[in-house]
Design goal:
Largest sheet of chain B: none
Strand content of chain B: under 5%
Chains: A mainly alpha (about 170), B mainly alpha (about 400), C mainly alpha (about 120)
Structural class of chain A: mainly alpha
Strand content of chain A: under 5%
Shape of chain B: globular
Distance between the termini of chain A: 68 Å
Oligomer: heterotrimer
Largest interface: B-C, 84 and 70 residues
CATH superfamily of the largest domain in chain A: NADH-ubiquinone/plastoquinone oxidoreductase chain 6, subunit NuoJ
Mean pLDDT of chain B: 83
Number of helices of chain A: 6
Number of domains of chain A: 2
Distance between the termini of chain B: 73 Å
Number of strands of chain B: 0
Radius of gyration of chain A: 21 Å
Helix content of chain B: 55-70%
Low-confidence stretches of chain B: none
Number of strands of chain A: 0
C-alpha cells in the first residue's frame, strides 16, 4: 500500500465515522457539527484526488453556507434541541439491507471500471485545471448552455425560497 | 544558491541532509522538515501576535488622545507579556449548562482558521508558501471555519448574549462574503489566475489598486465585516451584548479569541496588500533579498492593519438592519456591477496601449462608484421624504 | 498532492498551538469552581431559562439568499480566470449569468425579504 492509499483509508474511515455520528447523536446541533466533519472529510478526499477547486468549493459552499444554514434551521425550528424519541423504527433492518445492497452493487459495477484500482496520477506542473474548467464552462462547443442554465436554476431556487419564506399573514402594515 | 538568496531552501536542504544522514527515510525527513518549517512560521506569527496587542493598544490610545501602556518596560513593550502571564494564570471557568466539548473546541478552531490563512501567503519571491491554484478561494474556505467557530462558541456557552452575538456575527459574515467573493474575482480577472503568487506577479508595473480603486475599497469594507470589527462589530457590541459570542470565555480561551481577532485583522491587512497593492513588491527592492521582501510585506500588512484600526476607532457601530441593508441593497449590487464593468473593459481594452488601459480602468471604476453613489443618494432622499412627509429634509433638523 | 500536505501541516500545527496555550492555562490556572462562578453572565441579573431557544427566522432568509449567491460566485470563478484571455463573447456570457441572478435579488428586494423586521 502506498502512503496515498493509507491516507485515503484513514480519511474514508473518518468520513464514515462522522457520518455515523450524524445519524446516531441525539443532540441536533451536535449532529450538524458532525455533518460539518463529514463534509470536511469529503473535501479531503477531493484534495487527495488533486481536485483543488472542488475541494475548496466543498469547504466554501458546504461548510461555509449549507452547514451554517442547517445549524440555523435547527436553531430556528426546534425549541428543544435534544431529541428524545427512539432512534430506530422496526424497519431498521430493511434500511440496512438496502444500504448494503446498494454498496455491494456499486462496488460490483465499479470493479469492472479501469480507474477503480488506479491511484490519482501526479498532474504535470503546467496542467491548468481551473483554466480548462473556465474554458469548458464558457466555450460554445462545450458547456456554455449548462453554465447559463445553472444561473436560471439558482434563480428558481432563490425565488422558490423567498416565496416559501414569504408569509403574507405576518405582513400586516 | 547561497543562504542570503534563499535561506529557507538552504536551511531545509541542510536539515534534510542531516536527518537522512541519521538513517531516516527521505520522505519522512522531508515531512519532518516541512513540519518544523510550518511550526517555526506559526511560532513567529504568535510572537508577532503578542506585539500586535501592544500595537493595537498604543494606536487606539493615540486615536483617543491617550498614551496607552507605558509602565511595564520601555514604551510599555513588556505589557503584552504581562497580559499573557495573567491570562495563563486566570481560572478557566466553564458556565454550568455549557456544552463542554463544543465550548472548548471553538477557541481552538477560531485560532486555527486564522493560522491556516498563512499557508497561502507568498512571503518573498522564493518563499511562496503553498502556491495553491485556488489560493483566492482558500481565503473564503478558511473564513468558513472561522464562522463555524463563532457559532459554536455562541451556541455552546448557553448564554443568551453569546447566542445573539453569534447569530449576528454569522449574519454579518454570510452577507459580506458575497461582495468579498466578487471582489476577489477582480484580481483574478486581471491576473488570469487564482494563485496568490501569480496575482502578485501580475502587478509588476501597475498594482491593482490603480486599476480598481473601488474594488480595493469594497474588499476592505467586506474584510472589516468579515473580521467583525467596528463599524460591523455587532457580535461583540460591548454596550448591549457585553462581549457577544465570547462572553463566557475566560483565561487563555478568551486569549485565543482575542489574539485570533488581532492576527486575523493583520492577516487581512496583508491580503489586502497582496491582492491590490503588490504584496512583497516594492520597486524591485524585493529582488535584493528575501529578508527584505518579507520586511516589505510585513510593513505593508502593518499599513493595511493600521487602516483597519483607523476605521475601527473612527466609526461607530451600526444597527443590524442598517448593516444588512447596506450590504444587500448597496454593496452587493455595486460589487456585481463593478465585476461586470471590469470584465467588459478588460475585454474592450485588450489590445490598447498600457496608459489607455490603465486610464480606461480607472475611469470605469470612478464612474461606477459615482453612479452608484448618485443612485443611492436619490433613493435615500426619496425614502427620507416619505418618512418626514413633504418637509425639506434639511429644514427638519432645525 | 504535495501542496495539500503542507496545508495539512498548517492545520495540524494550527491546532497544536492553541491547544498548547489553553493547556498551559489549564495547568497554571486555579481550579475552584462554584455555582456562582459557573452561572451564566447576564449583566448581574440571574439568568432565566436556557439560551437554547427558538431564534428569529429572519436570519434564515438571509442565509438562504447568501447560499444562492455563494454558489453563483463559485460558478463565476472559473469564468473570471479565463475571461481576460478568451474575448468578448465570454464576458457577455458572464453578464447574462449575473443579470439572471440580479433578477432574483430584485425579486427578493421587492418582496420585502431584505427588510429587517
Amino acid at each position: 500500500m502506498t502512503a496515498q492509499q493509507i491516507i485515503f483509508m484513514i480519511v474514508a474511515a473518518y468520513t464514515i465515522g462522522s457520518g455515523l455520528m450524524v445519524v446516531t447523536t441525539r443532540n441536533l446541533v451536535h449532529a450538524a457539527l458532525w455533518l460539518v466533519s463529514t463534509l470536511f472529510g469529503v473535501a479531503v478526499a477531493y484534495a487527495l484526488l488533486n481536485a483543488n477547486f472542488i475541494a475548496v468549493v466543498q469547504v466554501v459552499v458546504y461548510i461555509g453556507a449549507i452547514a451554517i444554514l442547517f445549524i440555523f434551521a435547527v436553531m430556528l425550528t426546534r425549541k428543544d434541541m435534544r431529541d428524545s424519541g427512539p432512534q430506530m423504527n422496526k424497519n431498521w433492518w430493511a434500511g440496512a439491507l438496502v444500504a448494503v445492497l446498494v454498496f455491494a452493487g456499486l462496488a460490483f459495477l465499479l470493479s469492472g471500471w479501469s480507474g477503480f484500482r488506479n491511484i490519482a496520477a501526479e498532474l504535470p506542473a503546467e496542467f491548468d485545471a481551473i483554466g480548462l474548467l473556465g474554458e469548458a464552462l464558457t466555450s460554445p462547443e462545450a458547456f456554455v448552455l449548462p453554465f447559463e442554465v445553472a444561473s436560471v436554476l439558482l434563480l428558481a431556487a432563490l425565488v422558490g425560497a423567498v416565496y416559501v419564506a414569504f408569509n403574507p399573514r405576518s405582513d400586516k402594515k | 544558491m547561497s543562504f542570503w538568496n534563499d535561506p529557507l531552501k538552504v536551511a531545509a536542504d541542510w536539515l534534510e541532509g542531516l536527518l537522512t544522514g541519521w538513517g531516516l527515510d527521505a520522505v519522512f525527513a522531508h515531512v519532518l522538515v516541512a513540519f518544523l518549517g510550518v511550526f517555526l512560521l506559526i511560532a513567529l506569527l504568535m510572537v508577532l501576535d503578542i506585539f500586535l496587542v501592544w500595537i493595537e493598544r498604543k494606536v487606539v490610545a493615540r486615536f483617543q488622545d491617550r498614551v496607552g501602556p507605558n509602565r511595564v518596560g520601555p514604551f510599555g513593550l513588556i505589557q503584552p507579556f504581562a497580559d499573557i502571564i495573567k491570562l495563563i494564570i486566570k481560572e478557566d471557568t466553564t458556565p454550568g449548562g455549557a456544552d463542554k466539548v463544543v465550548y472548548n473546541l471553538a477557541p481552538i478552531l477560531s485560532m486555527m482558521s486564522v493560522l491556516i490563512l498563512w499557508a497561502v501567503v507568498p512571503l518573498a519571491p522564493v518563499m511562496l508558501g503553498v502556491d495553491l491554484n485556488v489560493g483566492v478561494l482558500f481565503l473564503i474556505a478558511a473564513g468558513a471555519i472561522g464562522t463555524l467557530s463563532i457559532i459554536m462558541a455562541g451556541w455552546s456557552s448557553n448564554n443568551k448574549f453569546a447566542m445573539i452575538g453569534a447569530f449576528r456575527q454569522v449574519a454579518v459574515m454570510v452577507s459580506f462574503e458575497i461582495p468579498m467573493l466578487t471582489m476577489l474575482m477582480i484580481p483574478t480577472i486581471y491576473a488570469g489566475s487564482m494563485s496568490m503568487n501569480t496575482i502578485i506577479q501580475a502587478q509588476d508595473p501597475i498594482p491593482f489598486f490603480i486599476l480598481s480603486p473601488l474594488g480595493a475599497l469594497i474588499f476592505l469594507i467586506a474584510a472589516i465585516a468579515e473580521l467583525g470589527r467596528a463599524p460591523f462589530d455587532l457580535a461583540e457590541g460591548e454596550s448591549e451584548l457585553v462581549s457577544g459570542f465570547n462572553i463566557e470565555y475566560s483565561g487563555m480561551k478568551f486569549g485565543m479569541f482575542y489574539a485570533g481577532e488581532l492576527l486575523h485583522a493583520f492577516t487581512f491587512g496583508g491580503f489586502w496588500m497582496i491582492l491590490f497593492f503588490g504584496g512583497y513588491r516594492f520597486f524591485g527592492l524585493e529582488q535584493v533579498s528575501p529578508f527584505l521582501a518579507i520586511l516589505i510585506l510585513i510593513i505593508k500588512a502593518m499599513i493595511g492593519y493600521w487602516v483597519i484600526m483607523w476605521v475601527k476607532y473612527t466609526m461607530m457601530r451600526i444597527r443590524i438592519d442598517q448593516m444588512l441593508g447596506f450590504n444587500w441593497k448597496f454593496l452587493t449590487p455595486l460589487a456585481f456591477a463593478l465585476l461586470l464593468v471590469t470584465a467588459l473593459m478588460n475585454a474592450l481594452l485588450a489590445g490598447a496601449p498600457t496608459w489607455l488601459y490603465v486610464l480606461g480602468m480607472l475611469l470605469a471604476n470612478v464612474v461606477t462608484g459615482w453612479v452608484a453613489l448618485e443612485i443611492a443618494r436619490s433613493v435615500t432622499r426619496k425614502e427620507r421624504m416619505q418618512v418626514e412627509g413633504v418637509k425639506n429634509p434639511v429644514e427638519a433638523h432645525h | 498532492m504535495n501542496e495539500w500536505l503542507y496545508i495539512a501541516l498548517f492545520i495540524v500545527v494550527g491546532l497544536i498551538i492553541p491547544i498548547g496555550a489553553i493547556a498551559a492555562g489549564f495547568i497554571f490556572g486555579p481550579k475552584k469552581p462554584n455555582p456562582i462562578k459557573e452561572s451564566t453572565y447576564e449583566c448581574g441579573i440571574e439568568a432565566v431559562g436556557d439560551a437554547w431557544i427558538q431564534f428569529k427566522a429572519q436570519y434564515y432568509i438571509f442565509a438562504l439568499v447568501f447560499l444562492v449567491f455563494d454558489v453563483e460566485a463559485v460558478f463565476l470563478f472559473p469564468w473570471a480566470v479565463k475571461t481576460g484571455q478568451l474575448g468578448l463573447y465570454v464576458v457577455i456570457e458572464g453578464i447574462i449569468f449575473v443579470s439572471i441572478l440580479v433578477v432574483g435579488l430584485v425579486y427578493t428586494w421587492r418582496k420585502g425579504m431584505l427588510e429587517w423586521v
